[in-house]
Specification:
The chain has nine helices and 13 strands. It is of the alpha+beta class and about 325 residues long. It binds ligand MTE.
């Protein structure tokens, strides 16, 4: 069957990340609403390409006490409203194109300031981790959010198994680079491969999750299969997808969005309603999947995790280190 491309889904707020890259023409609000739902409808009708949909159930996980007590965003929205520029810059592109990514077998290179560097099979890594379901809100820098029942393991556990040296001050993550599987990499929307970074204490925080699934299933490709990061007190762009390399470093690593526009996207990227992005406010967020005319939600400092993480930034000027 010929794959039909879902028309570009544009955001009511003019997807800021996209605006940064290309100023495409806007379409009317009603059409946007229709298109935004289009991918979900295709999914429900069984017309969506299925090869990119993992669908395999994950059974061996426990529920985490770190979960939010909130109803998750419907699956259709979580899996059709995505940012994954390797598969296109429109929200619907990843759901249509990410079937091109082959996620099994998958290996992860672990290197840098560690006692146990190497190229590891993801399956072998997973054998040593305790999987948990954690319901977290993903707050995107574009001022929308969704609540997702992620499944994954604590990054701190993996780092401990890697035996970090005393020089390990930061962790750098890298997404797969393969323009044949990730056609968006043929365009220079970002500097490829996508990279992200955390300070080691952020990486070791118990909230930081390496996710391998959602909604009880293996991670759909468009959400970053087979392994992605979730840092719930930071903007979504820190949550790098389809990770192939984890490197512990002494120096602060370069990160893709910061490299593209350093005055707009900082290294820290902590959710902070009182520090606006240069082009829009961060004080409120649109709730994805909520009924039409639902008011925006007030964005919380550190996305609601102040008690757990504020200490990490004590004495830092968060306007300067945004
Ligand atoms: N990781 C890679 N490799 N490429 C991307 O374009 N987009 C980021 C992040 N991780 C991105 C990425 C952004 S901007 C957001 S908001 C989240 O993924 C979106 O995750 P979701 O599609 O699962 O909601």
């Amino acid at each position: 069957m010929a794959r039909k491309k879902i028309p570009a889904i544009k955001e009511n707020e003019v997807t800021p990340l996209q605006l940064f890259n290309n100023s495409r023409s806007l379409i009317s609000a009603s059409r946007r609403q229709f298109l935004a739902q289009g991918a979900g409808l295709l999914l429900a009708s069984g017309l969506m390409p299925t090869s990119g949909w993992a669908g395999n159930k994950i059974t061996d996980y426990k529920r985490s006490s770190l979960s939010l007590n909130e109803t998750p965003t419907p699956y259709e929205y979580v899996t059709t409203y995505n940012n994954f520029y390797e598969f296109g810059t429109s929200k619907g592109d990843p759901a249509v194109n990410a079937h091109l990514l082959k996620t099994k077998p998958w290996s992860v290179t672990i290197e840098g300031e560690v006692g146990k560097p190497g190229v590891y099979d993801l399956e072998d890594i997973l054998k040593r981790q305790q999987l948990e379901e954690r319901i977290y809100r993903l707050r995107c820098v574009e001022a929308w959010s969704m609540v997702v029942p992620w499944i994954g393991f604590s990054l701190a556990d993996l780092i401990k198994q890697m035996e970090p040296t005393s020089k390990a001050k930061y962790v750098e993550f890298t997404t797969l680079y393969d323009p044949e599987q990730m056609p968006g990499q043929k365009r220079r929307t970002l500097k490829w491969p996508y990279t992200e970074g955390l300070r080691i204490d952020e990486a070791m925080n118990p909230l930081t999750l390496m996710a391998t699934g959602l909604y009880g299933e293996e991670m759909p490709n468009q959400n970053g299969a087979p392994l992605r990061l979730i840092v719930p007190w930071k903007y979504g762009f820190k949550s790098i997808k389809s990770i192939v390399k984890i490197r512990l470093t002494e120096q602060m690593p370069k990160t893709s969005w910061n490299e593209s526009a350093r005055h707009e996207y900082g290294f820290y990227a902590n959710v902070n309603p009182s520090v606006s992005h240069p082009r829009w406010s961060q004080s409120r967020e649109r709730v994805i999947g909520a009924p039409l005319f639902t008011p925006k939600r007030d964005t919380e400092m550190f996305n609601g995790y102040g008690e757990q993480v504020a200490e990490l930034y004590k004495g830092m000027n968060l306007r300067r280190f945004f």
